[in-house]
Design brief:
This protein has 18 helices and two strands. By secondary structure, the chain is mainly alpha-helical. The chain has one domain. Helix 12 runs antiparallel to helix 17 and helix 16 runs antiparallel to helix 17. The longest helix is centred in the middle third of the chain and has 32 residues.
Length: about 450
């Protein structure tokens, strides 16, 4: 009889805590009305295990799962994203009549999937994490069951997401056929021997790249984002704009830097084209949007283009700059969506006309987030872009940074148009707001972080 050793569960403890908590929340549906507090406890416990217990770092499941500094940083972003999403959701889902028992469970399951993706050292684990994240977010996008826009968003996201998953599986099958392994490091060792890249290798790289470019909403795989962002509940839009994007970048970093290192010149050329196209599509199409959620969707596409500039050079400094930018983006983007939730009518650009006269504090907060997304000092958005662009310049991509700066200047038009509406247009009617302690706390955290990182960047850089 074969003796199979029991795997060391310490490196995967945070994921186990999150998954068990999500399952328990489903069971407790009949007992507890407000499950947001229980979700908080789950996140806090997982964070304590991840950041205080030294033995939570290491490899397990035969080297298929790795918990290291790289994955831990991305897990920090996932947990911040989850905590802020729960804070902005508590009152909002009651208002939208979407307070279903599975809401917080699905948020925890989706975050567990993202954590698995960040720690995947094997393409099979990577795929399992991706599907756990994707299936949960498909359901969350359509959680407003009686809203036709929410239903449409979920169906579009599901159909296109299933197609991207198929591309990933085809890419994995090709790479397995060539190397007879799905371990990222063994694939790298196997490909290191080949002097010229073969056609199947390039095809598998393109298919895997396409699957993850879909997850980060990079052009030309961005077509789902505007409709899904607009149709999904605003709290879920905020969650999706950060979590899956961060998970996609975590995977691109690990797979491309390690498994496909031998064909770096090939994937660099592809990513340069994708980055320029993504910045162009995101910024140009955002100019004509009148719906704030659609505008932020195209803005999110543009930011994916900026972050790809951190992947392209292939240096440790540029990769670190991309990771810092992702953390900053989480705070400023969720902050902007929190203001949209705070206003009873806050989804159309016209809803912000004269807001500074009726709600000066709300207008000032929205101004801060718009300035940060534009990249105006002393906000965190400026630090993120400056750090990212400087890393690319040092790696010799000055021409690419010039293009990015031109598109970034273009983005000022649609961000500052919101500010112009708030401060320079007459008020049609007094804006109604639905404040709550949890939403106020989320906005306070995001505003503080936007200024703290903007004034003291050493907090996150280095």
């Amino acid at each position: 009889m074969m003796n199979i050793p029991f795997p060391d569960l310490r490196p995967v403890t945070p994921e186990i805590i999150m998954t068990i908590s999500a399952t328990v929340l489903l069971i407790l549906e009949l007992i507890f009305k407000n499950k947001g507090v229980l979700a908080f406890i789950a996140v806090a416990t997982a964070a304590v295990v991840l950041y205080t217990i030294p033995s939570s770092h290491g490899q397990t499941f035969g080297g298929m799962f790795i918990s290291d500094t790289y994955s831990t940083y991305f897990k920090l972003i996932f947990m911040i994203n989850l905590v802020l999403t729960i804070l902005i959701s508590l009152r909002y889902i009651q208002r939208e009549k979407a307070e279903y028992g599975e809401y917080y469970s699905l948020l925890l399951f989706a975050t567990s999937g993202m954590m698995l993706m960040a720690s995947a050292k094997d393409l099979i684990i990577l795929y399992l994490g991706l599907e756990l994240m994707a299936l949960s977010t498909y359901i969350l996008a359509g959680i407003k069951r009686h809203d036709i826009k929410s239903n449409e968003a979920a169906i579009k996201y599901f159909l296109l997401g299933a197609f991207s998953s198929a591309l990933l599986l085809y890419g994995i099958s090709l790479i397995y056929g060539m190397t007879t392994t799905t371990d990222i490091y063994k694939i790298a060792a196997s490909l290191q021997n080949s002097s010229t890249p073969s056609l199947p290798l390039l095809l598998s790289m393109i298919l895997i790249a396409a699957a993850f470019l879909f997850k980060i909403a990079a052009a030309p795989f961005h077509m789902w984002a505007p409709d899904v962002y607009e149709g999904a509940p605003t709290s879920i839009t905020a969650f999706m704009s950060v979590g899956p994007k961060a998970a996609g970048f975590a995977v691109i970093g690990r797979v491309f830097y390690i498994a496909f290192q031998s064909i770096q010149t090939d994937w660099t050329a592809i990513l340069i084209g994708v980055a320029i196209l993504t910045m162009a599509v995101g910024n140009i199409l955002a100019l004509v949007q009148t719906n704030i959620k659609r505008m932020l969707a195209y803005s999110s596409i543009a930011h994916a283009g900026y972050m790809l500039i951190g992947i392209i050079p292939g240096t440790q400094e540029s990769m670190s700059a991309m990771m810092v930018y992702m953390l900053i983006y989480a705070f400023m983007n969720i902050g902007a969506f929190a203001i949209v939730i705070l206003l009873e009518k806050g989804e159309e650009l016209s809803d912000y006309e004269g807001l500074s006269k009726s709600r000066p504090l709300v207008a000032a907060l929205m101004l801060i987030f718009m300035f940060s997304l534009t990249g105006i000092p002393p906000t965190a958005g400026f630090i993120g872009k400056f750090n990212l662009f400087m890393a690319a310049i040092k790696a010799g991509y000055t021409w690419l940074v010039v293009i990015a700066v031109m598109f970034s200047a273009m983005s000022a038009y649609y961000y500052l148009r919101v500010v112009m509406n708030m401060y320079m247009k007459e008020m049609k009617e007094e804006a109604a707001i639905t404040p709550s302690p949890s939403l106020g706390l989320a906005i306070l955290i995001t505003v503080l972080m936007v200024f703290v990182i903007g004034i003291m960047p050493s907090v996150v850089i280095g």
